[in-house]
Amino acid sequence: MWQGLGDGRRLPESIAFEGSGDLPSIFAVSDFAAAAVGLAGLAVAELIGHAFGECPVVRVNRRLASLWFGFSITPEGWSLPTPWDPIAGDYAAADGWIRLHTNAPHHREAALAVLRVPAEKTEVERAVAGWKIEELEAAVIERGGCAAAMRSREAWQRHPQGAKVREEPLIAHRQMPDVDTVAWRPSRARPLAGLRVLDLTRVLAGPVATRFLAGFGAEVLRIDPPDWDEPVVVPEVTLGKRCARLDLKEPGARGHLQRLLAGSHVLVHGYRADALEALGLGAEARREIRPGLVDVCLDAYGWSGPWCNRRGFDSLVQMSCGIAEAGMRRLGRSRPTPLPVQALDQATGYLMAAAAVRGLTERLGSRRGYEARTSLARTAELLMDGPAGRADSTFAPASGDDWSAPLEHTSFGPVHRAQAPLAVAGAAMHWERPATALGSSPAQW
């Protein structure tokens, strides 16, 4: 991961890992979690070192990192809603397995329209059984929905998109020629204080990245469409942020967004590769609006190849790239076996945060813009290339000593929040704002 940030710099020795425990998986998910959190922490330490001359020690708690890769909150006196739409899930087709992702209403409508059935699980199962997986996958995607046929890793590597993903860097990054006229400098105790981060991301990697930045003092403003909601994960990922809504289909709202961008230092976005272009906010336009911008973006299936504009989520990428098939096959299961947490989303979020902070470090002297790109599919390659995990391990849920004190009073109810998984000496990771509902703040800095 450190090599993915580029420039051939040696991995600093000022990092220590503590704690124990493994999430049960054939892949080393807890190692992956600790490494991703550690990478973002080292990026913060490097920023401090460049600004103040001494790189502080970074400590990562392995158990806490694993908890934050799942859920960092435990509601007190209330319950989170069911995480999945009733139609979402894995289905047996004529020649294999396919996953339908239907949490968004328009994605559910697309899948049901292709299958020509009502929103009843048994009817969907019956209809899917008559399709071949790749034909159904293509039909749902063509209709504007989200689906993924289960492939083995070998099949994915032979696939045109899989081959392209293997060629891409873990983090594609470059310094840009545009220069900011106003300097921003970190502070020692709150390294990202005074930094404005415009967050145009949704579930889950992008919000993880901006939550991390907020934890070190950044002012994060998240923008969502009028009708968008993520009821399960919003209490998890809006910690430390303000959340507003804009309808970018309206010309006036686009102008408003441009003014917000002009006042930002960092932009984090997870729109498909062609989506911002369609809104008149392509890469060149963004830099004209905000010279010196640190621009960090995310894609599901990579930035090249036939699927570069395909909608995707962690659970779908796990099906496509071979993770779910490997779990099923190696453990002798009868159905797809994904990771115990959405580790592709989570790890990519910390990669994005590290890239943003590295961009700020590069910007200290030059004030030049910085661009970084990541993808869930490329992050998956790193996990699958890594060591084996312990599928037979047990991992206790958060409780007692894992929790911060006092209770966090979110917009949804009180929660126990796990302690921060990371400590950067002299710059504690903490959040001034509790988690809040989408659209609860005005769209302004």
Classified by CATH, the class of the domain at 3-82 and 165-302 and 340-424 is: Alpha Beta
Query: In the CATH scheme, what's the topology name of the domain at 3-82 and 165-302 and 340-424?
Result: Rossmann fold
Mean pLDDT figure: 95
The overall strand count is: 16
End-to-end C-alpha gap? 33 Å
Oligomeric state of shown chains? single chain
The radius of gyration over CA amounts to 21 Å
What is the CATH architecture assignment of the domain at 3-82 and 165-302 and 340-424? Answer: 3-Layer(aba) Sandwich
- CATH level-4 homologous superfamily of the domain at 3-82 and 165-302 and 340-424: Crotonobetainyl-coa:carnitine coa-transferase, domain 1
User: What is the helix tally?
Assistant: 16
| Biggest sheet details | 7 strands, mixed
Reading side by side through the largest sheet, how are the strands ordered? 7-13-12-11-8-9-10
Low-confidence stretches: none
**What share of residues are in beta strands?**
15-25%
- Label the overall shape: globular
Strand pairing plus helix content: what structural class?
Answer: alpha/beta
- Helix content percent band: 25-40%
